[in-house]
Amino acid sequence: MPTKVANPRHNSLKTDFQSMEPEQSENLPDDEEIMCGVGSFYPAWLQKFSKPKVFFVNHTLLGLLQGAFFTYLVGCLSTLEKRYGYETKITGIIMISEEISPILFGLLLGYFGGKAHRPRIVAIGMVVAVVSCFIMAAPYFIYGSILYHNSEGLRYLTNKTKHEICDHKEKDYFCEKSPTLTAVSLLFFGNFLKGIGTLAFYIIGTSYLDDSIKKKNSPVYFGTLFSLRLLGPTCGFLLCSLCLNFYEDPFYDPGFGTKDPRWIGAWWLGFIILGIAILILSLPMTLFPRRFPGKQIPSNLQTKSEEAPMSRTEQLKDMGKAMKRIAKNPILICHYLGGIFRMNGLVGYYVLLPKYMEMQFRESASKASLYSGPAGLVGMQAGILLGGIAIRKFKPRPRVMTGGIVIAESFSAFALIACMCITCPLYQMTGTSSVGTLQFDLQNECNADCLCTTKMYTPICGPDGKSTYFSPCYAGCSAYNKTGEKEIFTDCKCVHNDDGEITVGDATKNYCNFECQWLITFVVVLSAGKLLASTASVANALVTLRCVDPEDKSLALGALSAVFSLLAFIPYPLIYGSLTDASCLVWEECGKRGSCWIYDSDKFRFLLHGVSAAFVFLGCLTDIMVCVLSSRLKNLYDDEDDGNTEKQSVDETDVINEGRMLGLVRMSSLTEA
User: Residues 6 or more apart from 186 whose CB is under 8 A from it?
Assistant: First the structure.
């Protein structure tokens, strides 16, 4: 047995502790590895917090903020597109930036990260996430907000008028250059840094926490952990809804409300709030010990620790052997192919859901974030808890459990197909003509001399009460009056009367009457699908947990992170960005193409739900293969340290759960796995 070398700093600490009163020092730990503190700060009162439960609370709260960060960004995407004038494809590139980090660093962090002081690595990752929050808010502090005013000399993007009217003049002041490249670059880099923080949090932090879990308790534990973390996405959507209710400059009144297409909410505010909150919760993370009291080093790692340390070359060779073991595991490959398909479909769907609800149900960005998030996530929490409790109580055989996964996941596809059938009455932009099948031509003989642009979408309702026009300019309006809260455009030469004939009249701002009673039905169907599908979440975690060699722990997590990023989290923004842009009818064009103002709602509805349902269906097919191979799953519920067996840490046995947790929690940052 090798002789343990004394640590000088540890001896000095013990000397300090001996000077304490007996009741303060008698229960003091005698191993610095299990002591809470940092540097030379190891006070006796802090040692009572050296418990897995305390870390669980801190870790879960940080996970909540991680989920909130992701869904807050999702809720702000349509606002950012309008503010900085770029297409949905560019949004996809911004979302991809977070996934570059796992590809570059996932394997290295997974293999070497477990050998370092894991809580401090997590803390460093969270500090990086704080920096990313502030960088993503930076475009506002650089360029300020859009101000609409009747005078000149104001800040960037100030217009000479609030509305574009038919004045027979070139409207160059509506086409000032947008800071698209700089803003997108900052958002891209900020999201890239967020990926580094997320990688450290899920790969290192969760494995550290899992070291104290017993197999027989893992279903309920995972159910509780996953459901608590789902509060994060809920909070993110709620925070987004709150912030977008304020104008971009909260102290400025633009003169119109949140449902006006020109409304730009205070998107930057939530990033500042989240950054401060993450920073506060990251500080305690640095104080946790390298391992918790009473936890033994896994037997396979003990053997290796007694051997001569491997060189970097030998470590890389060992990593290559471990990668081969993972690649030759058929049940793991099938299981994660299913996860890749589902993530492409469901994450892509829920990223676009706020935009879809804005377009289909004519809701503001604030309300769209509110409806698209909390309602479904509450159902998911209930489903995850019910699934975990059911597995803990009934302990189903592998074949039964994996068969249940197929049935549960299929409800996602059914819900998407049902939601595709829920629609609202379509409206025709009056005075337009179709160009092919993809675009409206807003210009006609009547408004040709108005020299209108599509820089500003200001819908107005004609005198017949049912005809909507893109802007006062395209309706041929030449004057504007405001009486109390009512805004009226007068002398409009291109509006239609009740018989559909062009006449001269007045128009009011905003859409004509639009009623749709299907929003609640849509939310209920989608939430029910989430609830039923999420009952498979804990079962999915257990399948991954039990099908990989315990010694491949951290490497498997890093490899799976890279695979998910490469095959799921990078493709879905490109796929869904392209199908969204393919549904656009009217682009913001004023010298260059910007964001989309009006979509073909039917085409968008069929593409969004059809593509998502197809991905989920492919995932279910691969889950059937997992069911066929389920006989390979061993020791689903029994700890190897039960009975007379040598104690073995969950660090060795509960490892791969984190691969699933990585996919599940990152996905539940948005929806479900």
Answer: 135, 136, 138, 139, 142
Within 13 Å of residue 293, how many CA atoms lie on the same side as its CB?
15
Task: For residue 480, give both structure tokens.
Answer: 């504007």
List the one residue out of 160, 140, 143 whose CA is nearest residue 151.
160
Question: What confidence tens digit (pLDDT) does each residue in 408-454 have?
Answer: 999 999 999 999 999 887 666 765 554 444 456 788 888 888 888 88
User: Of 135, 137, 179, 189, which is closest to residue 156 (Cα–Cα)?
Assistant: 179
Matching residue, tokens 């769209």: 368
Question: Which token pair is 590?
Answer: 């004023």
Sign of CA dihedral 332, 335, 340, 341: positive
C-alpha count within 13 angstroms, C-beta hemisphere, residue 478: 11
Q: If we measure between CA atoms, which residue out of 499, 498, 511, 502 comes closest to residue 475?
A: 502
CA separation for the pair 542, 157 (Å, rounded): 54
- Distance, in Å, from the CA atom of 266 to the CA atom of 256, rounded to the nearest integer, reads 15
637 and 221 Cβ atoms separated by less than 8 Å: no
Q: What type of residue is 25?
A: S
Beta bridge partners of 440: 434
Distance from the first to the final alpha carbon of the chain: 46
Angle, CA of 381, 382 and 388, to the nearest 5°: 90
Q: In this structure, how many other beta carbons lie within 10 angstroms of the beta carbon of residue 375?
A: 17
pLDDT in tens, 216-244: 655 555 566 666 777 888 888 889 989 99
Coil vs helix vs strand at 334:
helix
- Asked if residue 89 lies in contact with residue 578, where contact means CB atoms within 8 angstroms, the answer is yes
- CB neighbour burial string for 420-456, b if at least 16 within 10 angstroms, e if fewer: bebbbeebebbbbeeeeeeebebbeebbeebebbbbb
How many secondary structure helices (H) and strands (E) does the chain include?
Answer: 23, 9
Q: Which residues pair with 589 in a beta bridge?
A: 593
User: Do 21 and 15 contact (CB within 8 A), yes or no?
Assistant: no
Q: 210: which strand partners?
A: none
Per residue in 634-665, pLDDT (tens digit) is 766 665 444 443 333 333 333 333 333 333 34
Angle made by CA atoms 80, 367, 668, in degrees to the nearest 5: 75
